[in-house]
TrEMBL record:
InterPro entries: Histidine_triad_HIT, HIT-like, HIT-like_sf. Gene3D superfamilies: HIT-like. It comes from Actinoplanes italicus. The active site is at 99 (tele-amp-histidine intermediate). PROSITE patterns: HIT_2 (PS51084). A motif (Histidine triad motif) lies at residues 97-101. It comes from the Bacteria. GO terms for molecular function: catalytic activity. This is Histidine triad (HIT) family protein. The lineage of its organism: Bacteria, Bacillati, Actinomycetota, Actinomycetes, Micromonosporales.
Amino acid sequence: MENSCLFCRIVAGEIPATIVHRTETTVAFRDIDPKAPTHVLVIPVTHHADVVALAGDPAAAADVLAAAAKVAEIEGLTAGFRVIFNTGRDGGQEVFHVHAHVVGGAPLGPMLARS
Ligand code: 5GP
Ligand code: ZN
């Protein structure tokens, strides 16, 4: 655990979150600022900064993907959903504990915002 990491502190229960699914190796909780009717963040319990670091821990990566699929099932996203890993500056990543955004519950529109 990294004391300065917001999501490590959510894993530890030091910061409250609405948890929708938990395994030994993952936690899934509702995003505080949802961008879709369902917007859940899935994180590994162990601290990895981003998806590149997570890729170096294949077991944790597989667990995060399995948890994302489970969240979609729990949330009833039978019409589809997106799993997004924002990465680095161009990716708009704000929290540097890797998280999969699971978003759905309505048509999500174009894949990318156009400027
Ligand atoms: P990123 O931009 O890093 O991909 O996404 C970070 C996400 O974390 C954002 O969607 C933001 O709304 C969410 N977030 C930031 N702080 C908190 C918090 O304290 N609790 C929860 N549940 N979500 C948060
Ligand atoms: Zn962390």
